[in-house]
Amino acid sequence: MTDAELKGIAAQALNMAKVDLRQKKSFGMLIATLHQGETLHRMRKVEAEIAERLGDDWLNSGATKNAAFGILRFAVDIVKPDAVALVSVINRFGTTPALMALPEAEIRAHLDQGADHQHELVAQGLLTVRDALNALVQTPERVCTCVQNIQGRLFIGKPEFMLNDQKDFDGRLKMFGYGKWSMHDFMPSEMRRRTQ
Predict the structure, then answer these.
(1) Residue whose C-alpha is closest to residue 40's, from 75, 71, 70, 16
(2) Handedness of CA 45, 4, 65, 155 (dihedral sign)
(3) How far is CA 27 from CA 138, 149, 159, in A?
């Protein structure tokens, strides 16, 4: 799959999410797969099952995100799609002149911490935050990220695209090449007890 095709898939997934965002009171996550020669397939049953089992606010907890994305990796390993598309609303942080005036080591220390610390930096005037839709499309070789700033149900500016090699991509959203794991590794402890 070429980078241009990946960008097209990301734009298509982003547009699907925009329709949901315009029509629904809330938007959780869009999950879709693609097999070469077919159209993007929205996995609505999987989306609904994750929300039902983990709660509508599952994207607000590290433990439930680990569980959901672990299950998705398991499904991707079985279904073996050529590409996976995930779209969600994110907090998009930006630096301020006050942050950039700090020594470089201090800037890195601040930015290497988690979202809770980043929200503290917003309160201190060191970062800005706005909502955005983040479309992530990945194949076993490449990753395309497409970010669209939003304000309520309005879309601000043009989508921004970034392409990387899958080998340089890491974290809970990685669907290909994650290595050997058990689905239980990604479940919160109370869920592990229920499935053993």
Answers:
(1) 16
(2) negative
(3) 21, 15, 18
Q: What is the pLDDT of residue 188?
A: 45
- Give this prediction's pTM: 0.80
Q: Which residues of 165-186 are buried (b: 16+ CB within 10 A; e: fewer)?
A: ebeebeebbbbbebeeeebeeb
- What pLDDT, in 10s, does the model give residues 143-159? 999 999 998 888 999 99
Contact 30, 88 (CB under 8 A): yes
Q: Any alpha helices (H) in 55-114, and if so which ranges?
A: 62-79, 97-100, 104-111
Task: Say if CB 33 and CB 43 are below 8 A apart.
Answer: yes
